[in-house]
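Re: the pair you flagged

First of the two:
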Amino acid sequence: MFKKILTLSFGVLLLSGCATYGVISNDAVTAESDSPSTYSIKNIASKHSVGEVSLILAFSGGGTRAAALAYGALEELRDTTIIVNGQSRRLLDEVDVISSVSGGSFTSAYYGLNGDRTFKDFEQVFLRNDVDSHLVSGLFSPRRWFSTSGRTEMAIQLYEDHVFHGATFADLERRNGPLILLNASDLGHGVRFSFVQEYFDLLCSNISSFSVARAVTASSSVPVLFNPVVLENHKGCKMDDQALLQAAEQHAADSPQMTQVIQGLESYFDKDNRHYIHLVDGGITDNLGLRAIYEVIEVAGGASAFLKRINRKPVRRFAIISVNASTGADPDLDLSSKQPTLEDTIKAVTRVQLQRYNSATLELIQGSIKRWAGELSTSDKPIKSYFAQVSFKGVKDPEKRQFFNRIPTRFTLTDEEVDELIIAGHELLRNNPEYQRLIADMGASRQNLPSTP
């Protein structure tokens, strides 16, 4: 698939003289309104009852490899029961937020829209569907060569027809499921962009009628191969978030990282110079889906301020499960003195940069979740924190770990690869020490499942 991408990318450069323009589909909001609620963090949080655990999932990028691993983890949560107020409940039903990028966004968005139906048809709809062939044939189609709407519109239409069937964020809201944070990267300012009303407020726009397929495409849109998804930065609305971001910038004055994030968000207020926002693969700014969680909480001023803003009270347990489908080092590269190919070199450089950024993100979250729990704890009500990291590093068998590391980042895998990834999602989560500590504290049990899907 990587060779196909290089070939297609070269073809794209040859055709770059033909201008393409992003299709604008985000509606403007020109005045404050009491219209029906939208897909916002605060609104979705208000619909969830407060239990004993605040559970957040983060799904990484990595094509169908990431989507299948995340799907296996969802099944494991479905098959684990806990005791809440003396009643048995599935741990899956306690999930409050799923934050995702790129390939992981297909799983999170599909589950957000379809709930338990996901376990009946997602494998056939997406995981075992030859998506790459559809994309490649669409990219090579002569009808696309001189189209002014670009290649991304072809991908959006493909996902609309085969996966999401015209669903909008209003449909996501009506599902009353967990908050789904689909994350993309703002190509112009390098800031992460989440598809929730709070971000659309910065653009004077309403997310309700926005296509889920378009958001997922933005989250997984590989630069060069696909055009960015474009949003219009409208004028004329009341900018309630401006004071909030200015206060957040003062709060984060000692953090260059958060200062950069806040300044990036403030750039949306410059309507004249930032008239259009170009969104690409979310993995560029956050390949684990974890920084979205960190930034949302920190921009609000910390854990206490965030809960106050969404009208929620602290719960006894705060848990984050990171499902990371990133692969390790190429097992074949160091077996020969032969010079690596261009493909090998690009893959190795990308992997090194990704691994280093992922490590920094994991360290950041590990420290932050303990700090947030401490901030929310009182002498009579301590808050326990849990951070379960699910990745191929947890595979003990070297040959099996090498098998996973050789699975490419693409949208078409073999049935064997999909089977093994789903099983891995189950087993890696089930055997994770932090996850075991969480479910033991909650009096959990698990249904017996067959060893293969």
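Second of the two:
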Amino acid sequence: MRPPLSYLNIVDDVTRECLAAIPDTSISGRRVTRELTTLIDGRGKPQMIVSDNGTEFTSNAILRWSKEHQVEWHYITPGKPMQNGYIESFNGRMRDELLNESLFLDLEQARKIVTAWVADYNTRRPHSSLGYSTPAAYADRLTATGHPAPLHEGSACWPVAHTAPMGVSTAEALIVDG
């Protein structure tokens, strides 16, 4: 019997781009920090990351990484997924369109299929909230207008959080979910 897969999804709040969708047998806080470090090395550092309170996001590895990289980490209120609406929407779409419809024979196959689905999501699917542009096209348009958004391959370097929970300004953020 194959072990169930876990997924780490990272979505840019501004462009709606899926910056990472990582399937694995388990995802630890250390794994999250490695993936985030890789992302900021290529795309720039956000001021804030918003996530749920999963154990991988509340670990000492995340707390240390956040402090070392000077990235504010905001946790949504437990039981309030609407505070992280973009990632929840993305996760629902991924679950409905891909995960519920696919039987992965092994981890390598899952990685290939998820990668292809994310490429399609980012480059071929218009979003009404982006003026019917794809996330990649929207990010490119932000760059062309001089907005301080994408650094590399169309991702915004400082995305904005969906909602500002009490006590938090509408600072720039990435949203993360595992």
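The helical segments are 29-43, 60-69, 85-97, 107-124, 135-144.

-B.
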